[in-house]
Design goal:
Blueprint lengths: L9 E8 L2 E9 L4 E6 L20 E6 L18 H14 L5 E6 L1 H12 L4 E7 L6 H8 L9 H9 L9 H10 L3 H19 L11 H17 L1 H5 L4 E2 L2 E2 L9 E6 L7 H10 L4 E5 L9 H13 L4
Parallel strand pairs: 3-4, 3-5, 5-6, 6-9, 9-10
Antiparallel strand pairs: 1-2, 2-4, 7-8
Helix pairs in contact: 1-2, 4-6, 5-6, 5-7, 6-7
């Protein structure tokens, strides 16, 4: 369902200030349609599989690890690490790669970053392909990290997640994790991070159980950055621009073509958010994959994403 493995044509570290350096790489046709891959998390990173969504003859694919993620340095850092900084980093990367405008391909947290960047730099975006739309709203975070949301579908996994740090979390489990992951010794932080990733992994796929991420260092960065942003990022608290208290308005970037691919049984980023975006975005396309969940490794979702990229025509 994916294109064959491919090696980068070029790669490097980009200094974006604040002590952060971003790992980036380019694959595919240097004369092809520029597209940038925005990974999830926040705090995850790109993988060799991420390159394989793109037809190497059609696309000039640019991939990078966001602040503190993957091969970017300093690893796991939450300093100067928020949505506003990531949008500026993405624009700096575009300039560094001498790209006039590009397609944004983002899933989960990557869709959040894609939407935020498109709102700020619509003239630099030729189109968006989004998977598992997530905006970081209070309702979405409560669904994942508070009693009564996804916990009702996965009570056994929730029991482990909600008790991993003890019972004293004053009803705010997300804040407790954020506090635990920013203080104390590294060993305690890693144990909290493994619990965090085990909870998220249990929700991701309908095909089979997703193997738990066994790399403690990767889990530490993922959980630490995610919890920090979800608790402290002011831009997420105010919501993306089209979200209004009494309904929705068209996003400021709604003149840009947008395609959304959404798993029907996605319980990490439930379909209500993707549907709301589609309703608010005139001319947007929504493809619902009925036998898929959240993970881009679900075969049906993987196939739909490759087909969507193959069919995109942006100018």
């Amino acid at each position: 369902m994916l294109y064959p493995p491919i090696e980068p044509r070029s790669q490097g570290l980009l200094d974006v200030g604040d002590g952060h350096h971003l790992y980036w790489e380019e694959c595919g046709n240097p004369q092809g349609q520029p597209v940038v891959f925005l990974h999830g998390g926040p705090g995850a990173g790109c993988s060799v599989q991420s390159r394989r969504f793109f037809n190497p003859e059609k696309y000039r694919a640019i991939l990078f690890d966001q602040r503190g993620c993957g091969r970017s340095t300093p690893h796991g850092s939450t300093e100067h690490n928020d949505l506003a900084h990531l949008v500026k980093d993405l624009e700096r990367l575009r300039q560094h790669c001498s790209v006039e405008a590009w397609v944004l391909f983002g899933g989960s947290w990557g869709s959040t970053l894609a939407l935020a960047y498109a709102q700020a730099h619509a003239d630099r975006v030729t189109g968006l392909l989004l998977r598992g739309v997530f905006t970081g709203s209070a309702a979405e975070l409560d669904w994942l990290y508070a009693e009564g949301g996804a916990s009702r579908l996965f009570p056994e996994a929730w029991a482990k997640f909600s008790t991993a740090l003890g019972d004293d979390h004053s009803g705010d489990l997300l804040a407790t994790y954020a506090n635990h992951l920013s203080r104390g010794d590294r060993a305690d932080q890693v144990q909290a991070a493994l619990a965090w990733c085990a909870w998220e992994d249990s929700l991701c796929s309908i095909e089979s159980e997703v193997p738990s991420r066994l790399d403690p260092d990767a889990c530490w960065a993922m959980a630490r950055i995610s919890a920090h942003m979800f608790v402290h990022d002011a831009d997420l608290k105010t919501g993306l621009a089209w979200q209004k208290p009494h309904g929705q308005a068209s996003p400021p970037c709604s003149t840009v073509p947008c395609t959304v691919v959404q798993g029907r049984f996605d319980v990490v980023t439930p379909m209500a958010t993707a549907w709301g975006l589609h309703q608010a975005w005139p001319g947007s396309k929504l493809r619902v994959v009925h036998n898929a969940g959240h993970s881009s490794s679900d075969p049906a979702l993987q196939q739909a994403l490759v087909e969507a990229l193959d069919g995109l025509v942006f100018h």
